[in-house]
Amino acid sequence: MIGAMTLPLSPDELLTTTRSVRKRLDLDRPVPMELVRESLEVALQAPTGSNQQGWHWLVVTDADKRRQIGDYYAEAFGAYRNSPTYAGNAEGRSAERQAVQARVTSSAEWLAERMGDVPVHVVACITAGEELPRGNQAGLWGSLLPAAWSYQIAARARGLGSAWTTLHLKYEKEISALLGVPPNVRQGVLLPTAYFTGETFKPAKREPLDAVLHVDTW
Fold first, then answer.
1. How many domains does the chain have?
2. pTM to 2 decimals?
């Protein structure tokens, strides 16, 4: 049942100002389960291949389990920090882009240190099999990840912030064991969720559309 008051945002405002929230997550304010449930009710309206609806949603509020997930996340972040894909590696980019990446890096490190303190962890999962398909997996993840994004949008409309994170997947088996996830169910994304501090959000700085747009041919 969906009945919470939502923020007065137009669809375009909601879509362009839903950001990954890290430093602005309120770690001390409890999150009503009803708001999480309402956001997930919205998520279940997302498209899913062949209408299979093979998704599952783990909502983790237990403090000890959140702490253990946070420990795994911190370990994975440590490895990521030393990898070529680390967000802080902005050498050769413009000064403006380097400044943006520095802010992203700072907030990501902040979350890595505090993941276990975020009051709600939402783990989006899908029935997939113990071994993932070797070929194109777009059909599999396309039946889960749009719903996870819908959850983030619905949560934002209800005054909650979240962040899209996947580093925990380095320890997917360990976290599945911790949470009792069956072997044939795979995790897609971890969405730490809390109330956010501050007033509002604005659209992010992106590269111009024409830099990535191709019409009829590349």
1. 1
2. 0.89
Give 162's strand partners: 20, 193
Taking the C-alpha atoms of residue 212 and residue 218, their distance in angstroms, rounded to an integer, is 10
pLDDT recorded at residue 204: 86
Instruction: Name the DSSP class of 203.
Output: P
pLDDT in tens, 95-128: 776 677 778 788 899 999 999 999 999 999 999 9
Tell me, letter by letter, the H, E, C secondary structure of 122-147. EEEEEECCCCCCCCCCHHHHCCCHHH
Q: Is residue 51 part of a domain?
A: yes
Asked whether residue 217 is domain-assigned, the answer is no
Quick check: 191 and 165 in contact, CB under 8 A? yes
Structural domain contains residue 95: no
**Domain carrying residue 47:** 11-74+115-211
Environment class of 22 (CB within 10 Å of its CB; exposed 0-12, middle 13-18, buried 19+):
buried
Give 75's pLDDT tier (boundaries 50, 70, 90): very high
* Amino acid letter, 176: S
pLDDT exceeds cutoff 70 at 130: yes
Query: Which phi-psi region, left, alpha or beta, contains residue 192 (left: φ > 0; alpha: ψ -120 to 50)?
Result: beta
In eight-state DSSP terms, residue 33 is: H
Categorize the per-residue pLDDT at 68 as very low, low, confident or very high, splitting at 50, 70 and 90: very high
Angle between helices 172-179 and 63-81 (to 10 degrees): 180
Any idea what the CATH number is for the domain that residue 127 is in? Answer: 3.40.109.10
